[in-house]
Amino acid sequence: GEKIAISNGKLLVNFDANGLIESIVVDGETVMMSQNLMWYAAMNEGNSNSIFDDRPSGAYVFRPNGTDATPIAMQATLIVQTGALVSEVHQKFSDWASQVVRVYKGQSDVEIEWTVGPIPVGDGIGKEIVSRVTTQIPSGGRFYTDSNGRQTLLRRRNFRPTWTLNVSEPVAGNYYPINSHIYVTDDEGNADTVVALVNDRSQGGTSLQDGQIELMVHRRLLYDDHFGVGEPLNEPGDGPGLVVRGTHYLLVNPSLAGIHPISLIRPLAQQMFMRPWLSFSSTSLSFTNWK
Amino acid sequence: QHLIDSLRRSMGEAQHHDAVAGTEKEHVSQDYRLRLHDSVVDCQQDVSNSFSKMLPIGSQPLPQQEFCLHLNVSQCAITESSSRFTVTAYNPRSHEVTTYVRLPVTNGFYTVLDPDGSEMIIQLVPLVALQSIDAERPKSTATHELLFQAAKIPPLGHKTFYIIKTSTGRGQHSAIREKQQSTTVRRAKT
């Protein structure tokens, strides 16, 4: 029931009384937002009388049973840790979904380390988990995704540049592969504010509403999708399900002032993709002798 | 060269086949993992060999470098059990990089020295218990993560940091430093 804030001197992250991110303040400007872990119910087997049309969500296809995701929890239990170099908020949504929101001293991004799994499927429903950031940025149906970490492409919701799209899958039909980053800005020609997610592995992502971006972080499905793999996406075998941990960098900049968003996102993406490699050795020597 | 080629080959195989789409069967996925892991271990050997060759002629051989592949779940045998150890950060980018290093450790009093012997600002962050992750690291004794900033690692180069653990600090000066490196924790009441 208490509001919490963490800061690193450059930015301030505010959490509401439910323990969810409420806003981020950068250079005195506030960007209202929410962020949560959510799940799509997967389409199960037997959704059509025809074997050719019976397509459960599976390894090849993302096919949610419905048009929106459900929050894993509306409230998070918090542990707040603050110190000289990092301040972090641990948010526990359930026994199988939690995350840590970190701000390191001197950094201009927010690190979100998510841990998801084992996804419960005792109710007979496959689940596909996403991290969703919602802002009030009027993005006009436009969002941007990388293509294999290289060129950043404009995507438009419910639109294809070379043919007239008949949207029969309103969620999956707007999902794109995200290898490195996804972002929205507030205006096509005069972008002032940018909100971006930089990911550490290839994931699916989209912007289903203006100002919103989401990335799929984990899936556990109970049926083969009949496209060839011949088994459901349910590792390991009949076991308890996988626990997956990964990192997103959340970048918020409310005053671009002519700066192209990519000039901020690309260094972050390189930092994520090519992190320094650590090696260790024990020693009995004093520092002087060791050196 | 063959140590590096091993990873090239494993990555190439995976990218040529269905690992790229994630549409492989589970036992195939396990095979990809095994091949990638074996190749990564080969590359670690190559890095270790390279460090030894960078020492001046006549130097004592460098101790074998160990790599911790479970840092993402806060587990590393050397950092958890050694009272003196070194950490080498290799920067694979063609730009100078400053990064934060997090190492799983047991509670105590730590001093981190940079390559010039200057003492660094550190923070000891308590590990938060998480049932699903703790099950993945049954052998770990880590209770905290030791955090420091590895500044200005040269492009395609490395920096080594020297870390000493003592059970407690002594004197007023140590008490101040212990306070500086501690983390304030607030937990929600259940």
Can you give keywords for this protein?
heterodimer, A: 291 residues, mainly beta, nine-stranded antiparallel sheet, 19 strands, 6% helix, 42% strand, globular, B: 190 residues, alpha+beta, three-stranded antiparallel sheet
Task: Describe the protein.
The complex is a heterodimer of chains A (291) and B (190). Chain A is mainly beta. Chain A has helices spanning 261-273, 287-290; strands at residues 4-7, 11-15, 21-26, 29-41, 70-71, 77-82, 86-94, 97-104, 110-116, 127-135, 142-146, 152-156, 176-178, 181-185, 194-199, 203-206, 212-220, 244-253, 277-282. In chain A, the strands form two sheets. In chain A, strands 1, 2, 3, 4, 5, 10, 13, 16 and 17 form a nine-stranded antiparallel β-sheet that branches. Chain A has a nine-stranded antiparallel β-sheet with strand order 6-7-8-9-18-15-14-11-12, with helices on one face. The radius of gyration of chain A is 21 Å and the shape is globular. The model of chain A has no long low-confidence stretch (mean pLDDT 93). Chain B is α+β, with helices and mostly antiparallel strands and 190 residues long. Chain B is built from five helices and seven strands; from the N terminus they run αααββββαββαβ. In chain B, the strands form two sheets. Chain B has a three-stranded antiparallel β-sheet with strand order 1-6-3, with no helix packed on it. Chain B has a three-stranded antiparallel β-sheet with strand order 2-5-4. The model of chain B has no long low-confidence stretch (mean pLDDT 89).
